[in-house]
Amino acid sequence: MKNIILSILLVTFTIGSSNAQNTKVKSQFSIDKIVTNYLTLKNALTKDDAKSAASAGKVLYAAFNTVNVNSIDAKLKKDYLDIAESAKENAEHIGDNAGKIDHQREHFVSLSKDINDLIKLFGTKQKLYQDFCPMADDGKGAIWISEIKDIKNPYYGSKMLTCGSMRKAL
Length: 170
Fold this sequence. Notes:
Blueprint: H1 2-28, H2 32-46, H3 50-65, H4 74-95, H5 101-122, E1 129-133, E2 142-146, E3 165-169
Antiparallel strand pairs: 1-2, 1-3
């Protein structure tokens, strides 16, 4: 009888420890570095600085490559990998097109959706805003993520810097 009770206690303790470790693994993963690099890219586009945007695109691409996917909760891992694949492709295009700001901005539309999806999936410690430009993406409209309340439009830069609106705080 003692052995059965000890066995049950051992199994209970092991399961409890395992659950605690799983929670810890999930909480160790953060998209903060990705978001910070995205914001650097966004800010370069608001200033019409294609060279800095390209540099930031390369840094963002590298940030995705440093992610330890094994630190992501198993339930979220597939979603992360799908989003990251798209985001990396867009960051790479932006990084490879230093002299073509219009092309960079085209890829920024998709990249911004990817970053928004990552924020929805993992959250962020930073106060961020989802902004919207109705004229971006050939009049279809597009979102971007910003760290400031004021509108600084990365899709049109100096041409229409304050065009757009804040959709929501994240």
